[in-house]
Structures are given as structure tokens and as C-alpha cells.
Amino acid sequence: MTAFTIRPATLGDVTPVGALFDQYRQFYGQPADLDAATRFIGQRLERAESVIFYARGAAGQPMGFCQLYPSFCSVAAAPIYVLYDLFVAPGLRQCGVGKALMQAAQAQARAQGVARMDLTTARSNAAAQALYESLGWQRDEVFLAYGWTPGA
Known about the structure:
With 152 residues, this protein is α+β, with helices and mostly antiparallel strands. The protein contains 4 helices and 5 strands.
């Protein structure tokens, strides 16, 4: 069993969380860009635009993170969180880090009194889907997700 801790990321964690974020972006087909990844994470923390939970091993090694963006649900007329990023470093998966990060996010949502949390994942990501469903998340069978890119 790998020992680790989960805590909210601070500005002092920008370098290790930025490195994890760079790996996360590469997982989704983006080119490596540690400077951009670190700058992005630093800006989110400096501006308090997201809540980031950071998993660190007993020896201090970065293991994973999840990032929540505050948003709103117009229909419920209430605040929500969008859980946009969840990443556990390869080689450290299946140790409970992802589950612990998700549980920290859920605890944050309860503590802040948000109406719900939303997330999307690739249809092919069966491992993530199994994790989410084991924690009580329910697949949306009603709505379709769409995206639009300016200039495309």
C-alpha cells in the first residue's frame, strides 16, 4: 500500500502540480509544455479561480491532482462545481489516489453547499467511469454534450 496525503494545493505547490498538469494535458494529446502548464496552474491559484486537490506521497513525490471550477446552474439557481481535471501519475494508479482525490472533491462540494458537481469523460475511459459510479456519480442519459471552438 502506497502512503499518501491529499490536501488543497497552495501557491507553494505550483511546480509539482504544474508538472502533473503537463502530464495530464499530454494524456489528452497536447504537446508537452511545462512552462504553460505551470503558468496556468499558478494563475488559477493566484486568482482563486479553481480548487485544486493535490496528492503527495509520504516521501513528498507528486502523485496526482483534481481541479474543480466553480460555476452555476441556472435551472437550480444555485452554485455548482465542474470537476474538470483528475489525474494520477502513471505507475501510481490503482493505489487509491484517484478515489481519494474524488472523495476530497465531494467533501469540498458538501462543505460549500453546491447543488451538484458535473464532469465529463471519454466514452472509452471505462476505468474512470467505474470509479465515478462506485462513488455514487450517475451517468447522464438525457443530455448530449456539445462544444464549439471560435475560429474553427
